[in-house]
Specification:
Layout (H helix, E strand, L loop, with lengths): L1 H8 L2 H9 L1 H5 L5 H14 L4 H16 L13 H20 L14 E8 L6 E8 L12 H9 L11
Antiparallel strand pairs: 1-2
Length: 166
């Protein structure tokens, strides 16, 4: 959890949006994670408040455990999984606030991108495209020697096995 939060709060575009629009989430109970992450960033900037940092980390863990109960304890958890749930929860809270007619930018928007997938029928050659919105990729780095190789492997064209074809 700590490494994931350090990585997120180390992104200047993420933290600047988090703090710039703090007024939107400060007064809404539905924006608990957004508020707690903003508070943690403020406390992080004042390094003498160790006790407050611990309190904020506990509040963040409780916020995440509302959608994923396995993060409620002190057990070792997968950092990627925690990141994904943080991003989901932040977007959900921002979506709720948008219903209240408040114009605030969600810090997750800085990480979103569209991925274009092109599907080609092996029988007739017909293709169709599909654009999907993402804010993370699950790339296995264990088999590859570099991030570049991992990305190449991830985006490599693939052909399903015959039993996977509809």
């Amino acid at each position: 959890m700590n490494a994931t939060l350090q990585a997120l709060l180390g992104l200047s575009s993420f933290t600047s949006d988090l703090l710039r629009h703090r007024h939107c989430w400060e007064s809404h109970s539905s924006a608990l994670l957004l508020r707690n992450m903003g508070d943690l960033q403020v406390v992080r900037q004042n390094t003498t408040q160790t006790y407050k940092k611990r309190q904020m980390l506990k509040k963040i863990r409780r916020s995440i455990s509302t959608i994923c109960p396995e993060f409620s304890g002190d057990h070792q958890q997968d950092a990627h999984e925690f990141l994904v749930f943080c991003l989901i929860k932040l977007k959900e809270e921002r979506a709720y606030i948008s219903h209240l007619q408040l114009t605030c930018r969600c810090p997750v928007e800085n990480m979103e991108f569209q991925l274009l997938s092109v599907y080609t029928c092996n029988s007739c050659g017909v293709t169709f495209d599909r654009k999907e919105q993402y804010n993370h990729l699950s790339i296995s780095a264990s088999d590859q020697k570099s991030l570049h190789n991992s990305m190449d492997h991830f985006f490599k064209s693939s052909c399903p096995a015959p039993e996977e074809v509809w």
